[in-house]
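Entry type: protein chain
Record version: 2
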Amino acid sequence: MTNIFADIPESLPEELFTSLLKRDNSHIERIVSKGHSTPPEQWYDQAWDEWVIVLEGQAVLVYEQDRLKLPMMAGDYHLIPAHTKHRVEWTAPDIKTVWLAIHIYK
């Protein structure tokens, strides 16, 4: 058995991506952020749906189309539909933000 909060380094110069399970139609990963965000003016445009939940910490997602900002706290989850341009605007700089992301391939 493995714990979602195990093996997280204290220092995180870059976001930490850990693949937990990969299948033909899905990929589950843990993402750990600490003050990280998507570079300015960069947008993710994925060919698949992505469901994310913040397990610990805080973050803000934003959509390009309407610049809608979605503040997220521990327990908040959200479905990002395929080809919806989005970015991580902010993550808490003083605490770790632990995400669980499920990528659903069509």
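Comment: The chain has a mean pLDDT of 96.
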